[in-house]
Known about the structure:
By secondary structure, this protein is of the alpha+beta class.
Amino acid sequence: MACVPSVGKGIIDIWSWSLDRSIPEVSRLWDTLSPEETLRATRFVRERDAIRFSTARGLMRMVLSQYLGVQASAVILVTNTHGKPQIGPSMQVPLQFNLSHSADRAVLAVCDMFPIGIDIEQIRPINEDVAGRFFSRRECAAIKGLQQQDYLHAFYRCWTRKEAFVKAHGMGLLLPLDSFDVTVEDKLPPRLERLDGDEQASESWKLFNVDAPPGFVGAVAAMTGGEAVRLRYQSLARIFIQDAGLVT
Ligand SMILES: CC(C)(COP(=O)(O)OP(=O)(O)OC[C@H]1O[C@@H](n2cnc3c(N)ncnc32)[C@H](O)[C@@H]1OP(=O)(O)O)[C@@H](O)C(=O)NCCC(=O)NCCS
């Protein structure tokens, strides 16, 4: 099996791939899924959704298997009480990861030490009342009055940063979406501005934009406790072209 180095201190690896794959590729990935994942895949009404789910999970397993030094099918995944998938404690590694998918794209963040969350969204038209239902007062004020094109990008910047933060936090949607603020403005760096009950939150958390294909927006959040961290983009080609015949 080809091997990538362990992630390393202060680094978050970002992997990204297309979910629309050939039948032989999907079939190969299907073989890596656990019985629970296979069952989930069979429950989708539309075949395309089943294929995308299987591809997301299968390639996630293949990437994680490289860090863990096991076969993709042998990666043990558990979920926390709020549904966040994690490496099973029986594997005895501190590896952290999070997956997101939207339309035909998936992104995966992997690191050694910090709780992380990632989100990717395809930019689609939305009604302006959606922001008021999900965003804090400060966030709504920041995007109010923007022209439609700027509004959409600002909306998805805000959405993906909030979603990445929620996913890193690990409480899922039990965390009230108005209990924290993220920066939204194009000219400001991604940052957690406020978290109720935690005055150190802005220093403890790091937010990043994730490079995404045209028409998509992505963000990553990590609870680093103030430690410096950077994103490192990885390519599936690096590990799969020779031994798996998968194209990126
Ligand atoms: C499930 C949830 C964690 C993400 O849902 P989502 O944005 O629809 O989907 P994404 O593609 O970004 O993430 C889904 C993946 O996150 C992982 N995930 C599931 N539950 C999770 C949790 N509680 N925490 C972190 N990650 C989780 C899984 O790997 C899942 O993919 P899989 O089930 O296909 O393996 C949750 O936040 C949710 O339901 N969000 C709804 C959207 C919303 O209201 N967002 C408000 C933003 S302002």
